[in-house]
Design brief:
By secondary structure, the protein is mainly alpha-helical. It is built from 13 helices and 11 strands. A hairpin with a 6-residue loop joins β5 and β6. It is globular and about 60 Å long. The mean pLDDT is 90.
Length: 354
């Protein structure tokens, strides 16, 4: 999917060129970029959200917009399902779902009608192949309705999580100029070694992985994970038995900021994830993608999108804070962790771009 994402890099480049030296609301910029990347990689559609603020970008805002009423609905879904049933609350705004559904079905129908002549290496190609195999998993089949559900889930879950991670990573690079320069040098070395930016080149950028991992620790995409116990479970070494059907709330934000597991948790320190330290992290105390069979299925793609954006920016621009930048960022953790005042930064052209 590298080729699909590269088109989105060009849109990002044009946007930054038009806003050099200005105050840029980096979260919105990141959301437009990740929207383009997810839509291209899932549906094979060029959304160009930097120019077209309607369409997929508007659908994304409707899906995951934060307001008091929206937060109340999400709260009820997790803690008071009877209220959801009584008032028939919808977790995702229906008009946004309808837009994504129509876009997916149009793209899917066109691709299916091509009988394999058109291949974009995107989610639609994967789903068509799965449907042809007539697979079934515990009663789940790849029916048209289920295929649409996968597409909506990929879009709604993918663009926001990736956008937040990207924006917060850029903020920390702007605040920590030494880390920014060290990362830029690694990127330059990798590009020179491989001759171009390839998937293998990105995979070998260990410091980049460390920076992104620390960003996801300090700014996890969600403050908690919701699960349900599917069988009676006796906790080893305790008298406690978790009964079947019990909802389980796992505080991701609380774990990531617990000093028992991460010293000086407010500090942005990529070295927590270097080769010597990463093995010291206790299992299930670092959960940016969840864990186990229900962990995020799109984490590899999400990380690729974020990393490629950071690489593209650092190859051509210097990230700086400005008078609107706040440090530390004031976070609003429910239902999605966001910065209350946005993520304002300034971008200047790098003299020795590479």
């Amino acid at each position: 999917m590298m080729t699909n994402i590269e088109e989105c890099d060009r849109n990002l480049h044009n946007y930054l060129e038009d806003n050099l030296g200005k105050n840029v609301e980096t979260k919105e910029m990141s959301a437009r970029y990740t929207t383009d990347a997810i839509v291209k990689c899932c549906f094979g559609i060029s959304a160009n959200s930097f120019i077209n603020e309607d369409g997929f970008r508007l659908a994304g805002k409707k899906m995951l917009g934060q307001s008091f009423f929206r937060s109340l609905i999400v709260f009820c879904y997790y803690y008071a399902t009877w209220i959801v049933k009584l008032f028939k609350f919808q977790f995702i705004e229906s008009s946004a779902v309808d837009f994504v559904r129509d876009a997916f079905e149009n793209a899917y129908s066109q691709r299916e009608a091509s009988n394999g002549k058109v291949k974009n290496n995107d989610l639609i190609d994967v789903l068509i192949d799965l449907k042809k195999q007539n697979l079934e998993f515990n009663g789940f089949t790849f029916s048209r309705e289920n295929l649409v559900a996968q597409a909506v889930t990929f879009f709604s879950s993918g663009f926001e999580a990736a956008a937040s991670t990207l924006a917060f990573a850029l903020h920390e690079l702007g605040v920590n100029q030494d880390i920014q320069e060290k990362l830029r040098n690694e990127i330059k070395t990798a590009v020179v070694t491989h001759g171009e930016l390839t998937f293998n080149a990105i995979h070998q950028m260990k410091y980049l992985q460390m920076c992104v991992s620390e960003t996801m620790r300090k700014y996890p995409a969600v403050s908690f994970i919701h699960r349900e116990c599917i069988d009676n479970y006796k906790v080893p070494g305790h008298e406690l038995t978790i009964e079947k059907g019990t909802p389980i709330i796992i505080g991701v934000y609380g774990l990531h900021y617990n000093r028992r597991y991460f010293l000086d948790p407010e500090k942005f320190d990529p070295e927590r994830f270097n080769a010597n330290n990463i093995h010291k992290i206790i299992n299930c105390t670092y959960l940016p993608f969840g864990d186990g069979p229900r962990s995020c299925v799109g984490q590899t793609l999400g990380l690729l999108i974020v990393k490629e954006a950071i690489i593209h920016i650092l190859r051509k621009y210097i990230i700086e804070t400005n008078s609107f930048t706040t440090e530390p960022i004031f976070l609003t953790p429910f239902p999605i962790i966001q910065s209350k005042g946005g993520v304002p930064l300034t971008f200047r052209r790098l003299e020795s771009a590479f």
